[in-house]
Amino acid sequence: MSEVITEKESIIWASGHYLTEHLPSEYDEWEEEDLDNYILDNIWEPFEYYSADQVWENIENLAIDFKTTINEKLKEKVNEI
Predict the structure, then answer these.
(1) Any idea where the domains of the chain sit in the sequence?
(2) pLDDT at 1
(3) Would you say residue 32 has pLDDT above 70?
(4) CB neighbourhood size of 50 (10 A)
(5) Which of 46, 50, 56, 53 has its CA nearest to residue 23?
(6) By the 8 A CB rule, do 20 and 44 touch?
(7) Sign of CA dihedral 63, 31, 55, 27
(8) Is this structure's pTM higher than 0.85?
(9) 3-state secondary structure of 53
(10) Which letter does DSSP use for residue 20 in this model?
(11) Cβ neighbours for 64, distance < 8 A, ≥ 6 positions apart
(12) Of 14, 57, 63, which is closest to residue 36 (Cα–Cα)?
């Protein structure tokens, strides 16, 4: 079974935990400066003193954990069938 949840989907999902608006689907086509500006313009208040790099690192870490966990659980369910 291939991965059901992709890295891009997990990044978009995780961004909602740190930003007031999820990253749009075209975020991966942006220049780094544009991504940083989007993060800083949409940063959720508890993280307002974080740098864009710090927020991005948190988004990536949560996304990796989410993607790995969900894909492993789905693989287990498929193997049960």
Answers:
(1) 7-80
(2) 56
(3) yes
(4) 17
(5) 56
(6) yes
(7) negative
(8) yes
(9) helix
(10) S
(11) 10
(12) 57
